[in-house]
UniProtKB/TrEMBL annotation, chain A:
Keywords: Cell membrane, Membrane, Transmembrane, Transmembrane helix, Transport. CDD domains: TM_PBP2 (cd06261). The keyword Transmembrane helix applies. Residues 1-41 are annotated as: Disordered. SUPFAM superfamilies: MetI-like. Belongs to the binding-protein-dependent transport system permease family. This is ABC transporter permease. The chain crosses the membrane at residues 49-71, 109-134, 146-169, 181-202, 223-247, 279-300. GO terms for cellular component: plasma membrane. The keyword Protein biosynthesis does not apply.
TrEMBL record, chain B:
The keyword Transmembrane applies. Keywords: Cell membrane, Membrane, Transmembrane, Transmembrane helix, Transport. It is found in: Cell membrane. One of its GO terms (cellular component) is plasma membrane. PANTHER family: BLR7065 PROTEIN, SPERMIDINE_PUTRESCINE TRANSPORT SYSTEM PERMEASE PROTEIN. Belongs to the binding-protein-dependent transport system permease family. CDD domains: TM_PBP2. This is Sugar ABC transporter permease.
Length: 316, 311
């Protein structure tokens, strides 16, 4: 079901949507014998081919660049820049080996990325879970304005935030430091986490807390022991998306980071030099940057729609 | 949100948070929960916001400590009279309409196709979603590799089709290339959201239309489209806000060139601030961009309110 309203109704509608899908499966594949072919079936044979072809084109368009990046990262120098694209080649690990040896070792970049993205995602999740719960349950006046302020912080263009933040960070000595990057990433991850967690908490019926209160829990105990375990998938989704946003950032890192804090996207862009680009190493870095986030993203695929629409649309 | 619940009988919950309230003072537990996050958010958003306003009316000196010298409306006058700036806005609008428009059309198309697939839909969807998780910088650099005129895979394909130009070297093809890179990365998001919306259209309604002999496009126009229009609007708004947030792809492929063909507003802002160190003027540009994104945010929140999409 698409539009989430109250938790029970959306859960119910989700199951009916599932049934509808399955119902379609039956209608198309196994019509009862003796029943004349419906127009739906007659047209479906023709259109099934159209659908298959269109999807095949979409798959090729989507996957070719990624597969090509992966293949190229295992090519040697001459194969990577061959005028005729090489599909069959002798694979080599040289590109990866070169990334981790020599003066410009990739190790520190990975460490900076893990630290900056990981800490900012954890902080956003922690503060976002607390504030999101408050936002979901509060009845204060001006809640609407508060929510609007939070969402507009998330939507503010990075270019507009970077300029004043640069001056402030300069004043505070936060340029070229991991804490500086963490704070910069919190400008978009914190409002995102608050808003999204509040959407997940709103799906939990308040009656659950009430029974916990009746049983003698404090509000904090009810939150900690009853509500949090119920929103585990929400917590994981929020964390993963915050991690992806921060890990993939370039616009903040290019301004705020220096030798002590440069992240992986910066390492990738530094391979672009005046003298030329080592595409073998570049595709290897690309693979290292992209693959972990794809795995993390697919791990929370069931809740991706909810997460990426900030809770406005519920999927599956 | 409460006011939605008040106006709609469907959403009224008998045991709402109301019954928790009497035991607590007005800003009690919820307020305490929100405080740490909101204080940090305020520090990270309101302080820079006022700094941005102050900077837009000043000349910012960086040497020997940050200093703001008031210059009145100079930055704003320059902003309004800068012909290059207007060209950048125009280009941004074209870039915005092309990327978001293509992504919406293709995304809805892919979702409609995927919806007809019954077996293996999940694996297909998972594969189609992959570009979304790629760092935009990598997408840009990969795009550069694929379109390189001597060894790029796509350049090779185009060459065998008869196109021999340098793709990122001439204004029109460079613009098309950066648009397509963005489309490659973000079309899956639209497909994902639309697919969630399609699952809400009752199958019986679609079948009834087909039995009545309605052509496919009429079924889409009069049955499916109205049912998923809210979800499409959400997808459009989400994409719109990110379309002007991210400019990494252009930054690492053409960096605004060739001949300013891809110089959209955020690129110009970065250049103004971090190459020419004209922070005052950059702040004015930043505020104008912020106004646009606040407009999107307002529309988003209002949509959630009025159409009952919100919780």
């Amino acid at each position: 079901m698409s539009t989430s309203m109250t938790p029970p109704s959306s859960a119910h509608q989700r199951t009916t949507a599932d049934q509808a899908v399955r119902g379609n499966g039956r209608a198309v594949t196994a019509a009862p014998p003796g029943v004349p072919q419906s127009p739906l079936e007659a047209s479906s044979k023709r259109s099934r081919w159209t659908v298959a072809i269109l999807l095949a084109v979409a798959m090729l368009w989507t996957l070719i660049p990624l597969v090509w990046m992966l293949l190229s990262s295992f090519k040697n120098r001459s194969d990577v820049t061959a005028a005729t694209p090489q599909v069959l080649f002798a694979p080599t690990l040289d590109n990866y080996r070169n990334l981790f040896s020599g003066p410009n070792n990739l190790g520190p970049y990975i460490w900076h990325s893990v630290l900056a993205a990981g800490i900012s995602a954890l902080l956003a999740l922690f503060l976002g879970a607390l504030a999101g719960y408050g936002l979901a349950r509060t009845r204060m006046r001006g809640k609407k304005h508060l929510a609007f302020w939070i969402i507009s912080t998330r939507m503010a263009p990075i270019a507009a935030i970077v300029v004043p933040l640069f001056l402030i960070f300069r004043g505070l000595g936060l340029i070229d430091s991991i804490p500086g990057l963490v704070l910069a990433y919190l400008t978009f991850n914190l409002p995102f986490a608050i808003w999204l967690m509040s959407a997940f908490f709103a799906e939990v019926p308040p009656s659950l807390e009430e029974s916990a209160l009746v049983a003698g829990c404090t509000r904090w105990q009810a939150f900690r022991t009853v509500i949090l375990p119920l929103t585990k998938s929400g917590l994981v989704t929020t964390f993963v998306l915050c991690l992806v946003f921060a890990w993939n950032d370039y616009a903040f890192a290019v301004v705020f980071s220096g030798p002590n804090s440069q992240t992986l996207p910066i390492a990738a862009s530094q391979l672009v030099t005046q003298t030329g680009i080592d595409w073998g190493q570049l595709t290897a870095i690309g693979t290292i940057v992209v693959v972990p986030m794809m795995l993390a993203g697919l791990a929370v695929r069931r809740w991706l729609v909810t997460g990426l629409t900030l809770g406005a649309v519920t999927g599956e | 949100m409460t006011h939605v619940a008040d106006s709609s009988p469907v959403l009224r919950r008998p045991a709402g948070p109301e019954s928790l309230a009497p035991r607590e003072p007005r800003y009690g537990f919820e307020g305490r929960m929100m405080t740490p996050g909101l204080i940090l958010l305020a520090a990270l958003s309101i302080v820079p916001f006022f700094a941005l306003i102050a900077m837009s009316f000043s000349r910012v000196r960086l040497l020997g400590g940050v200093r703001l010298d008031a210059v009145g409306l100079a930055n704003w006058v320059r902003f309004l009279t800068d012909a290059d700036m207007w060209m950048s806005w125009l280009r941004t609008v074209v870039y915005f309409v092309l990327t978001v428009g293509l992504e919406m059309v293709l995304g809805v198309g892919i979702a409609l196709c995927l919806y007809r697939v019954l077996r293996g839909r999940n694996i297909l969807l998972s594969l189609l979603l992959l570009p979304m998780f790629a760092a935009p910088v990598i997408v840009g650099l990969l795009g550069r590799y694929l379109t390189d005129s001597t060894f790029g895979l796509y350049a090779w394909v185009l060459r065998s089709l008869g196109y021999t130009g340098d793709i990122l070297g001439s204004p029109t093809s460079a613009f098309a290339a950066v648009v397509l890179m963005d489309v490659w990365e973000w079309t899956p998001l639209i497909a994902l959201i639309t697919l969630a919306g399609l699952s809400s259209v009752p199958q019986s309604v679609r079948e009834a239309a087909a039995v009545d002999g309605a052509p496919a496009w009429m079924t889409f126009r009069y049955i499916i489209f109205p049912a998923i229009s809210n979800v499409l609007l959400v997808a459009l708004l989400i994409r719109s806000m990110d379309a002007i947030r991210y400019f990494d792809i252009i930054w690492v492929t053409t960096n605004g060139g060739p001949a300013d063909a891809t110089k959209i507003v955020p690129i110009r802002l970065y250049e103004t601030a971090f190459r020419f160190f004209d922070f005052g003027y950059a702040a004015a540009i930043g505020l104008a961009m912020l106004a646009f994104s606040i407009f999107i945010a307002r529309t988003f929140v209002r949509l959630l309110d009025t159409r009952g999409l919100t919780r």
